[in-house]
Amino acid sequence: MAMDILGQIRDPENEYRPMNYWGWLENIKPDEVRRQVREMHRAGLGGYVMHARGGLEIPYMGEEWLASVSAMIDAGKELGMLSVVDDEDGWPSGFGAGEVTAGGKDYWLKWLEFERVTVDKLKLSENTVGVYLYQDNVFHRVRDMSEVTDPSREVLYVYYRCNRYYVDNLDPRVVRKFIEASYEKYRSRFREEFGKGIWGIFSDEPQLARQYIPWSLILPSEFEKRNGYDLLDELPALFFPLENSGKLRYDFWQTVNRLFEESYSKQIGEWCGRNKMVFTGHTVYEDWLGTQLLGSAGTMTFYAHMQVPGIDWLCRTAVSNVAAKQVSSVAEQLGKKRVLSEMFGCSGWDISFEEMKWIGEKHYVLGINLMLQHLGLYSLKGARKREYPASLFYQQPWWDDFKSFNDYFGRLSKIMAESSGVVELLMLHPMKSAWIAFDGQDYEKAGWTEHWRIEGALMDGSECFKRIKQLDASFKYLTDCLLELNYDFHYGDEELLKRYGKVEHGRLKVGNCMYSVVILPPSISIDRSTLRLLTEFLDKGGKVISAGDFPGLVEGERTDEAAGLKDRVISIENKKDRLKKALSGILAPPVRVELSSGEENRDIYCCTRKKGRDLFYYIVNTSRDRAYDVNVKIREKGFLYRLDLAHCCLERLDSTDNMHLEPTESIMLLGSHEELDCGKKEIPSGRIIRSIPLRTDEDWQIEECDLNSLTLDYCRYSIDGGEWQDEIPVIKLQQEMLKLGRPADVKMAFRFYAGNLSDAPVFLVLEEPQKVQIELNGQKIECADRG
After folding, report:
1. In the beta sheet, which residues pair with residue 553?
2. How far is C-alpha 618 from the geometric centre of its chain's CA atoms?
3. Strand 108-118, strand 639-644: pairing
4. CA 31 to CA 35: how far, in whole Å?
5. Predicted local confidence at residue 783, as pLDDT
6. Which of 7, 30, 106, 777 counts the highest number of beta carbons within 10 A?
7. In angstroms, what CA-CA distances link 722 with 362, 466, 507, 750, 780?
């Protein structure tokens, strides 16, 4: 590859180029769809994920919709672009535009709640899950209320609630109905295009109860089938720290996690596989352990069934190390070539290329290799311009210059996707410890801050919540330390280790990946299958480091089974200097950086990729405001080149000392066993575009490019002939109108002053003038289009 690297990456194929998360709204027309596909191609995008958004004016999945889908497929095929359809009318995926939720209560999302109540105030309903008496530090399930004769006796009442607008994703029957309502409809119309004109289907944020403990009508029977005892007998242990809490919580969340995986991800992944389609998208709340638990009970097993697993990362902030490493770890281990992130959403209209590059490159150094740009809107009419901005599409003034950005990330994606990670370190993921750390009183929301008293014992939900926060903080700290020490690594999900893990040639193999060192993060519990695997790994010469608290439970139960392993591992405090010392004696990273200033590195991340005999070293300054001079240390010998992806050229390097990295700058190095003809000897900075401060001490020539404009964004208003109200932002008036929930006549008064206009014409720019009456200074204005 090395001899022809520039030729291979100069014009990357569409499959490697960024994609547009393309929002369909308003009155979709086939001709306009074709035009917008051509615009994306002109800007260097390789494809798009089409999905319905608020403001759609034609019936979802109706004939007009399907005609535009057909036009999209034809236009995409003509240009060789990747067409992906979203599986839902909005989000989160699963309700089938209302067809699934129309099935009734059995299909609706459910969650558990509980309250303490005296027997005389207790009102049982069809949503009752269980009633429990507390005595001798144990909850006893009441099967017959007539046995409780004291009406003033307090009981724990557990019940479920429903959301009729979303679905029970734990029940495979519900997800099958969703497949029929969405996937099969596309199949019936476009089956000949599956795997050709339509590359894949995107599922957006399928989830559990999100803020609550999930429930399903099938959960009690599934729990007993999988665990061998009655869930309802032990249910209070979900909410309170009882003697059996560890075991019950482990079994409960294990069951929930497996049901979500099998019902949603596995069913849809297998359907896509049979139909030659790519299943892609992401779950919800992939970042920290507490929200991930409530959103999916653990995302890594969900990714296992996706042909292109993904995450999303909203706002103008650097991606979470944990979220990106979770999905990229599963992809590497299970041989999934592409790893997606939906990025830039909610970043605002003024986001710069530099900021998007900063967000994108941190994703890529953590293992992402497919950029889905949120958002490209079909139209900005009305409220749509304020919906999760910005629209990174033809409406932007910089649209004609966007191709250089997409060329760059297309080249980077091609290198990252066609190579494999050089990763020798595995860190166990503590998701199952989070299951046990979580009390059902841990909701951070109004109404759950009251104290619960049981026979004099005081338990404060906010105090309980500290346990899972501490577990998450220690996990993230260890993750950050490894990256700052330039050790690339993968997470090991214990369920995936059980399925794909074994010891070969003294190393731990998980799917396609081989590891020589395993790290245990601070944990509460460990699986028996993991214990056996690590014991065999140690027997064959492997190294295991335990950082911080060693797990005291095995699958939620207190036992001495893990004592033998604890005696054989390298135990250290969960501190960066201890970790560095422990690793330095047993494993050297393929590439690392030393700051010339002698400071400790925090901002510069590295990863190493291999294709054939070639090695790619990707070094990223993740800081937005600090530049660094660095010495780069490469473990392998051979010829070394700097590969400039912005200008597509090579530079031979005799030394990697004193290299300079501006804020958000990256360096791609190519290690080759053969000497290459570089042509150009010096290359420009690897930054595509750089924000620079305005110099006021220089002369500037200012040229008028467009008509000067004044935004009218505050108004007084009157509804249905009522009194005039004080001035507020137009966006707030929009919210007030939505609260009415009905049509209304609205008057809006905008106050502005424009002086020194001489005889220049003045225009009013607005949408759909035919729907309004206009007065200026008391005079009626004709609504005539002036272009």
Report:
1. 525, 558
2. 23
3. unpaired
4. 6
5. 83
6. 30
7. 53, 51, 77, 17, 21
Sheet with 340-343, side-by-side order of all strands: 278-282, 200-204, 82-89, 47-56, 19-26, 370-377, 340-343, 310-313
C-alpha distances in Å from residue 107, one per residue of 103, 181, 211, 252, 579: 6, 13, 19, 21, 49
pLDDT recorded at residue 467: 85
Can you spell out the DSSP letters for 231-273?
HHHHGGGGTS--TTHHHHHHHHHHHHHHHHIIIIIIHHHHHHH
pLDDT of residue 684: 53
Q: Which amino acid is at 736?
A: E
Q: What is the pLDDT of residue 698?
A: 82
Give the integer Cα–Cα distance in Å for 167 and 489: 36
**How buried is residue 782: exposed, middle or buried, by Cβ count under 10 Å (0-12/13-18/19+)?**
exposed
Say what the pLDDT of residue 351 is.
95
Name the nearest CA neighbour of 156 among 453, 425, 374: 453
Q: Specify whether the CB–CB gap between 609 and 416 falls below 8 A.
A: yes
User: How many residues are recorded in the chain?
Assistant: 787
Report residues of the chain scoring pLDDT below 70: 1-3, 441-465, 679-693, 757-758
Q: What DSSP string describes 258-312?
A: HHHIIIIIIHHHHHHHHTT-EEEEE-S--SSHHHHHHHHS-SHHHHTT-SB-EEE
Q: Residue 110: which of 69, 185, 164 has the closest Cα?
A: 164
